TrEMBL record:
InterPro entries: AP-1-like (IPR050936), bZIP (IPR004827), bZIP_sf (IPR046347). Belongs to the bZIP family. This is Putative transcription factor kapC. Coiled coil: none annotated. Residues 1-20 have a biased composition (Polar residues). It comes from Letharia lupina. Residues 120-132 have a biased composition (Low complexity). Keywords: DNA-binding, Nucleus, Transcription, Transcription regulation. It is found in: Nucleus.
Length: 146
């Protein structure tokens, strides 16, 4: 067998975090300029937060006003519909009473007519009865169907 040289792949581990930590430490100097920079960043951030809160409160107030306006409109519509319903309900009740009255009048006319027909059948032979069940237009004379 051939003997080939054996190649070993080795990976060298290098710690890359160490220089970064040193860079951060160097950057964190306590100079007056750095302190002012941090202070200015905090001031700007606080001002930005106050502006954001103010804008949020304004949007919220505007939304609440819109909802209150919409509520007023819906309440007015509800009152109009309620009034309309009450009016229609009273009209319906009046019409029901009128129908009931007309039906009772019709029944009394029918019963009086039947009584007079039974007394004198010849006198009512040409009487038109639109509610008769036989469908004749004329009494016992010429027959016309609808």
């Amino acid at each position: 067998m051939d003997s080939q040289p054996q190649v070993v792949n080795s990976i060298e581990f290098t710690d890359l975090t160490q220089p970064q930590l040193e860079d951060r430490r160097r950057r964190r100097s306590n100079t007056q300029q750095d302190k002012e920079s941090v202070s200015n960043m905090r001031i700007r951030r606080r001002a930005q937060n106050r502006a954001s809160q103010r804008a949020f409160r304004e949007r919220k107030e505007k939304h609440v006003q819109h909802l209150e306006h919409e509520l007023e409109e819906l309440e007015a519509k509800h009152q109009n519909l309620s009034r309309s319903y009450t009016d229609l309900d009273s009209t319906h009740a009046k019409l029901k009473m009128e129908v009931k009255q007309l039906r009772s009048e019709l029944e009394s006319v029918k019963s009086s007519r039947e009584g007079s027909v039974n007394e004198n059948p010849q006198s009512n032979s040409n009487f038109f009865d639109p509610f008769s069940s036989d469908g004749n237009f004329y009494g016992s004379g010429t027959e016309v169907r609808f």
